[in-house]
Amino acid sequence: MSNEIISHKFRELLLPSLLIAMALNIASVVDASFVSTFLGHNAQAALQVLEPLVMLITIFEWLFGLGGQILALNKKAEFDEDGSNHYFTTSMLSTIVLSALILVACFLFKDALINLLHPTAGALHYVDAYSVYLFICFPIATILGVLCQFIRVDGQPNFASGVIIVVNIINIILDYLFLGVFHMGIEGASLAMLIGYVVGALCILKYHFDSKRTFKFVLSKLKFMSWVISTIEIIKIGLPGASMGFFNVLLIYFMNLIVSGVLGELGLDIFNVCVSALLIISILIMGFAETLSSIVPIYYAQNDFYNLNHIVRNSVIITLVCAVAFTVFLLVYPDGLLMFFKLHQVPNDALVENAIRIYSLAFIPMAFSTMLLFYYEGIERTVESGIITIISEFLGPLMFTYLLFPYIGITSVWLSFPLGFILSLVAVAIYVRIVERNQSEYSGLFFIRKGLIEKTRNYTLESKNDDEKSEMFNHLESLDVDKLSIETLDKIINTIFDSNNQKVHVEVLLIDYDDKITINLKDEGKREVMKDIEKSFSQDNLKVSEVLGFNNIEYVINMD
């Protein structure tokens, strides 16, 4: 047995996922660096004041991008193409409508919105100037982010990543030109971001005209009530991830009030560097987490716990190692980050360094809690993901700040973040143990179905004469499967290898459900082979589809 196909698919999806996470995070980091360099710390403080609005893009991308993607992929796993297209259409339409409404609301109530953010006197002018292009950018960036989520899992991850690269390169180049060369002020940083996303949106139109895409926008088949009901379904699935962004918006808003009230613009500058550090490590963590959430629905729905265990374990280990490395770097050399934001020589530099060191302790528990959250979202365990979100992104940090502030002052703010993540892990572990007692078929934090593990076999075939195929047939014979069914399976496998000139791996999942045996075959070979198999074999117990860019065949042997 090997994990060739799932490992290759994970690597293929990871780069686009990293770049999509970068698109949502790197613009804030780059803007903060250029703004602090060319305009000073009052302007950087303005960016921190506006951070809650910037994070709204993340909320919608998770809400409709990941939520819709999970439901659409589940339908693909069930061989329901119409259902998959229905959720794709619903996700995109809901994104367009709601982001447009928010754009209108931002301009109609601009002054009230800025006052609600409570900018300091020194940052007010910069907040007002930056917000204009930010508001215009909001629907464009949101629609682009949601659509890239679907393109990434539709066999075109390189195209999705290419668009994101273009957006970020344009943004970085124009940031330097508008601020450093043309001296356009903070409006230049905002305009650079807008132009980058407009170019990205034009590039993404290619997907609409691509005949190879499997997600189709079928607005003509979408009725109003079905749109509303499906939107609610998508929100329900995407809410844990999106609420992570929503609660983070609220948390940053309240923390902004605390640090600006105690330290003024310096407090906002310090907090902006802390948030930027979190955004940097989040690029990696969110890349792995979102890749995991794209693969988990397919393999969990098919009860393939062997491959799930492999990919989840590797993802957790890699993210934890990277989080530890970044934490150690900031603990030993915080000036390495502070120099990037021109804060390494400000007064009270010991206060600034102390804040960075303490805040960096959040990265390790954050890595594990984020992976768990997106895994739970992928298997539609909304309560468990909700527990992590509410505690780690809102209640935990606020509670610890309130409890510790009388004793350690402003240090309580930085310390509350790692404590909040740790508390969320403890709480979800306790809840999972309670669920295990009531639902005995599940085992552990990842809800593995105990009764199926021993009845499951995984095989990876490299040729039609592979020894593993003989081992698989021997196992089927031991289960009293009739010879005709075994011969049919052999013909399906031979067709795949013959049509691809042997240059393909076929991953086989075999599960004994007592009354039936389900055999799922995945390969990354030619798409047209599936059509040949559909024509050549009975449709009563065989289904085919394309999922995540690979061929997916389900062959069911009834044992009655």
TrEMBL record:
Primary subcellular site in the record, as a coarse category: membrane
Membrane topology: Multi-pass membrane protein
Molecular function in Gene Ontology: antiporter activity; xenobiotic transmembrane transporter activity
Location of the protein in the cell: Cell membrane
Signal peptide interval: none
Name the UniProt record assigns to this protein: Multidrug export protein MepA
Taxonomic lineage from the root: Archaea, Methanobacteriati, Methanobacteriota, Methanomada group, Methanobacteria
One cellular component (GO) term of this entry: plasma membrane
Family annotation (Pfam families): MatE (PF01554)
